[in-house]
Amino acid sequence: MATVTTETEDVPYFLMRRPSARGEPAWDIATLFPAQGEWSEQDYFSLKTRHLVEFSDGHIEVLPMPKLSHQRMALWLLERLNEFVRPRQLGEVLFAPVPVRLWPRKYREPDLFFLSRARLAKSGDYPDGVDLAVEVVSDGPEARERDLETKRVEYAAAGIPEYWIVDPELQQITVLTLVGTEYRVHGVFGEGTTATSVLLEGFNVVVADVLAAGAGPAQAE
């Protein structure tokens, strides 16, 4: 149970508040969980929710629920990656929600990701890093900052060799490849072009097909 430290003792947080008023958060429920900054990995893995939740240095981040268009694009890419990876026995392609450990006390959940055979051989219930991460950018400034800036820095720091950012708003796919400890832009691919991988030589997708998949089967045919 979350507590607040006073000058003399730790007091349960709910004792410091009045009952929730209409329109306020349900404080009694909130106090059943650790305060931000005090979550442990055990707390994180015991959390039961339908939402995507990521864990960062004692804090949890609740991600927005994906829309149909988001899931359609992610599924389309998952299928194309599987078609490339499986026949060649390169490894495995998986999708969120799966916590990926970037480093101690830092877990992210890429929309989809590729694990090489070598990495799979070392993975337990949750992978330590991935070989290729893909994020389909959700609506809103927080989501854009998370995928375009924050995760770019974090995935590079975790040593993820390749990062694809599918951006429906800008109608483009950015492919980043790791050089040393930072990403280099392999390409920013817009409509009318084909996005290509450095890590998986020969893997490519037509950007217009990815974006069209978001509209649904009838429109994507």
How are the elements arranged and paired?
Elements: E1 3-5, E2 10-12, H1 27-30, H2 41-46, E3 53-56, E4 59-62, H3 68-88, E5 91-95, E6 100-103, E7 106-108, E8 112-116, H4 117-122, E9 132-136, H5 141-157, E10 162-167, E11 172-179, E12 182-190, E13 194-196, E14 204-206, H6 207-213, H7 217-220
Parallel strand pairs: 9-10
Antiparallel strand pairs: 1-2, 3-4, 3-7, 5-8, 6-7, 8-9, 10-11, 11-12, 13-14
Helix pairs in contact: 3-6
What does this 3D model show about the protein?
This protein has 221 residues and is α+β, with helices and mostly antiparallel strands. It folds into two domains: 60 residues, no CATH class; 153 residues, tt1808, chain A. The chain has seven helices and 14 strands. The strands form four sheets. Strands 5-8-9-10-11-12 form a six-stranded mixed sheet, sandwiched between helices. It has a four-stranded antiparallel sheet with strand order 4-3-7-6, with helices on one face. Strands 1-2 form a two-stranded antiparallel ribbon. Helix 3 packs across helix 6.
- The arrangement of helices and strands along the chain is EEHHEEHEEEEHEHEEEEEHH
For CATH, the homologous superfamily of the largest domain is named as tt1808, chain A
Poorly predicted regions are 1-8
Distance between the termini: 53 Å
- Based on Cα principal axes, name the global outline: globular
Q: Which CATH C-level class of the largest domain is it?
A: Alpha Beta
